[in-house]
Amino acid sequence: MDPDEPSRDIVAGGTIERIPYSEACSLGMPCTWTSCDRDAIYRYSESGLWYDAIACLLDLITYEGDKQSLERMLHHLLKQSGVNLPT
User: Fold this and answer.
1) Which of 12, 51, 68, 72 has its CA 20 to 30 A from that of 38?
2) What is the C-alpha separation between 44 and 51, in angstroms, rounded?
3) What is the 3-class SS of 50-86, one letter each residue?
């Protein structure tokens, strides 16, 4: 933070909305513990559960071999959720 030039400060903010477990189940989310897969990412993002979709996708990027495809998916998901990263 620069008190002399506050317009140069980079600031970000956001909110996370928590939904009840029963509502997540009614949206078709996995209601028992299962590992993340691409289908889970699609279900989360289609339901607007961006935090869960991104967390699941980051797990896949960390532990699976197809990093390039998964990173493209992450870029698309972030853009879809309103996060624009510099290229």
Assistant:
1) 12
2) 8
3) HHHHHHHHHHHHHHCCCHHHHHHHHHHHHHHCCCCCC
Q: Model pTM greater than 0.70? A: no
Distance of CA 69 to the CA centre of its chain: 16
Per-residue pLDDT tens for 13-62? 878 778 787 887 787 776 666 668 888 888 888 888 888 888 889 989 99
Residue with tokens 């997540």: 24
Alpha-carbon distance of 19 to 16, in angstroms, equals: 10
Asked whether the beta carbons of 57 and 49 are under 8 A apart, the reply is: no
- Residue 36 vs residues 3, 24, 39: alpha-carbon distances, Å: 44, 16, 8
